[in-house]
Amino acid sequence: MRLVVARCQVDYAGRLTAHLPMATRVLMIKADGSVLVHSDGGSYKPLNWMSPPCTVREGQSDDGRVEWTVTAKAAKGQTPDTLRILIDEMFHDSSHNLGIDPGLQKDGVEKHLQELLAEHPATLAAGLTLVRREFPTAIGPVDLMCRDGAGLSVAVEIKRRGEIDGVEQLTRYLDLLNRDPLLTGKGAVRGIFAAQEIKPQARVLAEDRGITCAVVDYDALRGLDNVEDRLF
Amino acid sequence: MRLVVARCQVDYAGRLTAHLPMATRVLMIKADGSVLVHSDGGSYKPLNWMSPPCTVREGQSDDGRVEWTVTAKAAKGQTPDTLRILIDEMFHDSSHNLGIDPGLQKDGVEKHLQELLAEHPATLAAGLTLVRREFPTAIGPVDLMCRDGAGLSVAVEIKRRGEIDGVEQLTRYLDLLNRDPLLTGKGAVRGIFAAQEIKPQARVLAEDRGITCAVVDYDALRGLDNVEDRLF
DNA sequence: GTGTAAATTTCGAGT
DNA sequence: ACTCGAAGTTTACAC
């Protein structure tokens, strides 16, 4: 890992064309040759970058300034990517041996929400019981397949944030499931769209299609499950 | 901008819970208090981070090691975010004044593709002429509304990469447009799904719905338009 | 490897 | 301020 602070100008050409005027920035060159150009603001996204695999070549511009050329192998059907960094003045330059990182351990994403709802399906609708998780269909697995008190099949799609594409996804599943006589024996398969937060447009579309929306309280579910000991 | 190289352990709690075991990493602390934890690989995304606005407080752990606590104000309906960085050994520490960045200038995204196709609709289908760009509907604007040689209305959806959700979007527009007698006077509104690249599944879904797929050659369109002088 | 869905997405435009 | 759609998205996972 090499860290450089320099006044530089950056030009990118590849999937698009982009230009950064001369200014002072941080350049991070990772062991795999990837390069990140950061300013003193914004979020974690660099102003410009080059993803691995790529190679950095140090050269000189016409007027004798240092110029880095970072090139990546062209993906099929794409223009080859090039990042050109022209360095006007270097204020800092240091290299560090970091070693391999053990990596991130995560908890709390959709998968976990699915586990919790699989254990407590009745929080979605009274009388709901689980048939199986990841119920397979020809176009992909349904998050939860349940049965309600009347014996009707209920397909549940779970999202952290409920947006329009999640409703589309559930609609595709319902179209398919309702062609299966084994499931529709006692009546049409119902849909429940469950999310921690449901966007207004998604709600409108869901209700227009007869899909029930359920806003899920993640913390309350966690409480039901007493999973505090899973935390670090 | 402060750059630190240190052996550290990182714990995040907020929208999810995440943990990074003790290892050597680069810590970037930006002027707005945001923090990035980078390893010597991966893409531009940090292993862990805290987005602005947030504040860093330097303290000590129980055993006397340096500990940074980064806190962000809780977003509505969310758990407050906290990033705890326990520093075992610091190998590098430097601060730099970068100033404000003039920012990135871009070219070549979907908007530009839409401009080019608006100028040359006939490249999508022979005889096609533009009615208007961003044609408004109740559920959002159609990228291009055109008319074909026979006087039929044609709705065009433009994507850089054509995936299944783009076809869904166009389908929703067509459903709606086909209820408007002003548009369907001479026959049903047709759909064209235009993209630089169309995924096989998206193509199948589109054709199943009677939507025409058009693969767009961006460079060729650019050539028609003679826009080389727009480049840097 | 290809394809699909999620992300602590981030970013920008429009209302 | 909020909402929606795009991103040089990146990342993880299933087939």
Name of the CATH architecture of the largest domain in chain A: 3-Layer(aba) Sandwich
- Radius of gyration of CA atoms of chain A, rounded to a whole number: 26 Å
| Number of helical segments with 4 or more residues of chain A | 5
Instruction: State the end-to-end CA separation of chain A.
Output: 30 Å
In total, the number of domains of chain A comes to 2
Order of helices and strands of chain A: EEEEEEEEHEEEHHEHEH
Structural class computed from helices and strand pairing of chain A? alpha+beta
Low-pLDDT stretches of chain A are: 227-232
Output mean pLDDT of chain A: 88
Q: How big a fraction of the residues of chain A is strand?
A: 35-45%
Explain what this protein looks like in three dimensions:
2 copies of one chain form a homodimer. In chain A, 19% of the residues lie in helices and 43% in strands. Mean pLDDT of chain A is 88; it is low at 227-232. Chain A has 2 domains: 2-95, Protein Yojf, Chain: A, CATH 2.70.180; 110-230, 3-Layer(aba) Sandwich (Trna Endonuclease, Chain: A, domain 1). Chain A has helices at 110-119, 164-177, 181-184, 200-208, 218-225; strands at residues 2-13, 17-29, 35-38, 48-50, 54-60, 66-72, 82-95, 105-107, 129-135, 142-147, 153-162, 190-198, 212-215. Chain A contains 5 helices and 13 strands. The relative contact order of chain A is 0.11. At the A-B interface, β1, β2, β7 and β8 of A face β1, β2, β7 and β8 of B. β8 (105-107) of chain A pairs antiparallel with β2 of chain B, so a sheet runs across the interface. The first copy, chain A, binds a DNA duplex (15 and 15 nucleotides) through residues 12, 14-16, 18, 42-45, 48-51, 78, 81, 106, 108-110, 140-141, 159-161, 163-165, 169, 199-201. Chains A, B: Pfam families: NucS_C, NucS_N. Chains A, B: Belongs to the NucS endonuclease family.
